[in-house]
Amino acid sequence: MSLKAAGIIELPDSADTLFDHGAFDSKSRRVFVAHTARDRIEVIDRDGSCHLATLSGFPEAAGVVADEGHVLVTNRGAASLAWLSSADRGCVQVRHKRRYQSARVTRAPHAGKILQ
Known about the structure:
five-stranded antiparallel beta sheet
């Protein structure tokens, strides 16, 4: 079975940049994409086919895996692994190495909801 393009989703500040892996989380119905050159993760609403949010603070984000509301991101620039939980509205919990911090979600201008 071959893949076919179903549409185009514009991502902010994406011209002349680099992306790496992306992952689909079936629980949140979101696609998380490593925006390597901008040190962030882009969040796409799969069902709404739109960019939903930008998460900053992921130095040279590279690999992304997702399952059951949990997302793991490898950061080449910091030699670290970040864990995200999409359970909180408008905020995700991020764990870099052994310390926790809260990361505010930057809304896309057209987004209706943030990480449910």
